[in-house]
Amino acid sequence: MGLLRNARAWLGASLRRRRFEADLDEELRLHLELREEKNRAAGMGAAEARQDALRSFGGVGRAKEDVRGVLGLHWLHDLAQDLRYGARSLGKWPLFTVIAVSSLALAIGAATSVFSLVNAVLLGSLPVPDPQELRIIHWSGITKHFSYWGVGGWDGVRNHGNDFSLPAYRDLRSACREDAEVFGYVPTYEGVLARARHETMSAQGFMVTGNFFAALRVRPLFGSLLGEEDDRPGADRRVVISYHWWESQFDLDPGVLGRQMLLNGSSYTVVGVLPRGFSGIRTGKVPADLYFTISAQPHVGPQGWRMDSPDSWYVALMARLRPGVRPEHFGAVIDAAFKGISGKYLGEPAAAVLNGRQGIDENRGDYGRVLMPLLGTVGVMLLIACANLAGMLLARGSARRHELSIRGALGAGRGRLVRQLMAECLLLTLVGGALGTLAAGWGGMLLGRVLAGSTSAFKYDARMDWRVLGFALALVVVTALVSGIYPALKAGSAKSAGPGPMRGGSRSRAGGTLVVAQICLSLILVVVAGLYARTLSNLLGVSPGFSVENLLIFHANPGNLRMTDAEVRTYYSSVQDALRPMPGVTSASLMPYPFLSNTSQVDDVAVPGREKDGGAAHEANSMDVGDSFFETLGIRILAGRGIIVSDTANAPKVAVVNSAFVRQFFGGEAPIGRVIRVRGSDWRVVGVCADTRFSRLWQPSHPTMYFPFRQQTPGSAFFAVRTALPPASIAAQVRRAVDRINPAIAVDDVSTQRELLDATIGPQRIVAALCGSLAALTLALSCAGLYGLISHDVARRTGEIGVRMALGASKAQILGPVLRWALAIGGLGIAAGLPLSYAVARVYCTNLFGLTTGDPATYAGSGALMMAVTLLAAAVPARRASCVDPLAALRCE
């Protein structure tokens, strides 16, 4: 009960501190008055009665401290008093306060901004109830024969993937019904042609199983969602739309329910709208606009899929565990069930379950490899800021030795002084942390937008949440402890010193050590930034092998309308013919996908007569292109000819190959007229073109074959338009010309080849810019730290310098020791930083191009830059030392 009373008293007094203090004053005053009256009744005079009452009471201040101690409030009172005193003290040193708060705000803000991205990419969860219950189902094995449409891979021994056949989904769901609810989905990889009002556009579609929304526990904003009854053949065609689609296409019209939409020419009824916060289960991707069941595949799915065939694997599976089911148990159940149904298609089949809390994200690992080193970089920057603040506090503590000595002489113990100094440090870090966190809220979103602009794959929401705020608070506390504890302990042990400046002595070893550490850490960031800057420079200097400027790219997919092959060829020819005579267009041609878009198609190749040179089959990239393709792209023809109009379906099958293909498949022999066997047919080589950078700018040229699209089964296609004007100026005109051919086919993915090239090096550009910015900030912090240390040293040695100048020392003799000391500190920091920089670069700089992690030029340039910064920081204090007035210095001494 006593503890409870104390706690209640503490809480009440904390909330009503002013009233508590007033009541305490009133109570003590009454005690004194009663004692005075007693003394006057005993015959004492008024003054003598008052003095005796005070003496016998033992002091009002001491009594207040005793009461606060009984109630447990003395520390709260001391903290409030220390913070008020610290605020007044910092206000007397405005330059010191501004520099300290600014450096802390920069460091904490940068660290929090990067962590907000790390939180969004690596720590975020799906916006559904209880996401920790979700699991992703994977398979692995040695593949035999089946059609696989999903995202998979090969680890050198076994294939693996996340997509199953529709019959396999049904069997697995039935086998695991007691342990989990298994559900599936299929993205419409090439989009859906949607006509909501009067315009046809390409939308992102998602085919889902009937239990998809029920398993995720998603509720509609209004209307209804898809259910089991919608996933049966012959069911009504129903579609659920996302909030974004409702907003952009229907202007948030609540009457959207019951509206008819044309999807790939088939009519669907809108039955529900998803809540605003639901962005799907594929994080880091553009959210789906439309959701319909897998039974809609014949209408909205790509042609060639056999929906109910056990040979077609295209349904990605997830599961929600039922209450009380352990993930290990569910993994064993799903593995046993999968082995029983997949023996025909896989050798040594196995299934595994992964944590699905964060959803499906193929890019998380790639961005994680970039963000974690970046988080380490801002961590180094924060350490430099801590060292800088600690050095400034050491210098300030030395300047306040006289004040601290007087306070000690008046009875303040060492612990009390240390608490006072730590309160000032905490106040600095709180203000700096608050400003940094405010800046981080804006900076994280800006950084996310910059990353999204550099690569279309980055679609994460880097908002502030409790994790980010907790991280920022932890940074503030850690920064206060790391920066303030040693300076506070050192200053708190100050002995009595006379007034006036301190006499010269040995330089501060602690301050020098901190500056050496700052230079060492700064060098690491400068080296890393230099390596990435040189990587970006090398990439920008790479020739892609074709002309990038004035090249407009757009996509069209008539296959969604279920056209025949002949109709698709006719459509593509009509688009080419409509584009070429347009004003400002010099040439136009079809291509299956743009260069430098991280897309490729690979086919097996056999060269008759060269089977002994490495086997019957090799792999090469392939592209089905239109006539004038090489002229439009600006790819040189080295021998023979390119693709021409007469290369039709009835003409002999021909191909153009690049130089890399000739070197690999013909050993440098003349290829013109030779035959290659691809896709079950023989093709005669009629031309050789120059090599191009195919998928990524940093990847070497691969063997590539180009075929006339009229001699192939055409699929989805892009068009390249060479312009004499800026491409953006004729984009609308091009769209109108294509719409006139068939308004039901949407023109989408409009961009320029320059934008695609910039996007392919977007991550390198961003990393180089961020590392460069952080390196510049740390250089500024290190420069400020060194400047403060040398300025403090010059100030404390003013008397010595005055004596030396009075005895005839020249300015050069005064400048020399100061600059030599700065050079020594810089040399020590650089000597310690070079091997550390190499070790860090070996671990984190894994995506370099055109240089190694031990590039001598980068290390030499970084060391020279650090030494120049060191001399710059030392120049002003050194010059001030050389201009000391001997008479003024001696009078001060």
Describe the structure.
Helices cover 52% and strands 17% of the residues. The protein has 893 residues and is of the alpha+beta class. The strands form three sheets. It has a 16-stranded mixed sheet that branches. β12 and β13 form a beta hairpin. α24 (811-844) packs antiparallel against α25. 41% of the residues are buried. The model is unreliable at 495-507 (pLDDT under 50).
Give a nutshell description of this structure.
The chain has 893 residues and is an alpha+beta fold. The chain starts with a helix and ends with a helix.
In the predicted model, the low-confidence regions spanning at least 5 consecutive residues are 495-507
Cα(first) to Cα(last) distance is 63 Å
Instruction: Provide the β-strand percentage band.
Output: 15-25%
The structural class is alpha+beta
Helical content (DSSP H or I, runs of 4+): 40-55%
Task: Please state the overall shape, judged from the principal axes of the Cα atoms.
Answer: globular
Largest sheet: 16 strands, mixed
Strand count: 27
Radius of gyration: 37 Å
What is the count of DSSP helices, taking H or I runs of 4+ residues? Answer: 26
How confident is the prediction overall: mean pLDDT? 79
Please describe the structure with a list of short key phrases separated by commas or semicolons.
single chain, 893 residues, alpha+beta, 16-stranded mixed β-sheet, globular
Helix-strand blueprint:
Elements: H1 2-15, H2 17-41, H3 46-57, H4 60-71, H5 74-91, H6 94-123, E1 134-143, E2 147-148, E3 152-154, E4 159-161, E5 163-165, H7 166-175, E6 180-187, E7 192-195, E8 200-203, E9 205-208, H8 212-216, E10 222-223, E11 238-241, H9 243-250, E12 260-263, E13 266-273, E14 290-293, H10 297-300, E15 312-321, H11 327-341, E16 346-355, H12 364-399, H13 401-409, H14 414-454, H15 466-492, H16 509-540, E17 551-556, H17 565-579, E18 585-591, E19 602-606, E20 618-625, H18 629-633, E21 637-640, E22 654-658, H19 659-666, E23 675-678, E24 681-689, E25 704-708, E26 717-723, H20 727-741, E27 748-752, H21 753-760, H22 762-796, H23 798-806, H24 811-844, H25 856-882, H26 886-892
Parallel strand pairs: 2-15, 9-14, 11-13, 20-25, 22-24
Antiparallel strand pairs: 1-4, 1-15, 1-16, 3-4, 5-15, 6-9, 6-15, 7-8, 7-12, 10-13, 11-14, 12-13, 17-26, 17-27, 18-26, 19-20, 19-23, 21-24, 22-25, 23-24
